[in-house]
Design a protein that fits this description.
The chain is an alpha/beta fold. It is 35% helix and 17% strand.
Amino acid sequence: MQWSIIGKRFSPDCGDRTVFLMHRARGVLIDLNGTLHVDDKAIGQSVAALKALRRSNIPLRFVSNTSKQSRSSLLELVRSIGFEMEDDELFTSLSAVRSIVNKKSLNPLLLLSENAKSDFEMKIGPFE
């Protein structure tokens, strides 16, 4: 298998593609569940891979579309698995909804788990 990026060919097994992309990237957006972890277990070498990516000094942001866990409990989970993650690096679907609710001064009926509802009871990072 090979990829062609801007007229150049890169083979995944020699690492050329990764090196090329790391030199061109201005940031990396990484999904959590199913990409870095499943439930409370890291996938493969994802902890080591994330550490290597951090050494590149490329800005990282993490996303999750879960609506079952609060942002704080999700941060606690990924940190307990071994991932290094700053509070302001995680963006969740609940965080996005919270931002809209605040900006439009809405008072929604929240049909969420108690854990998820906690995102609407406290300030949650860069969205305030």
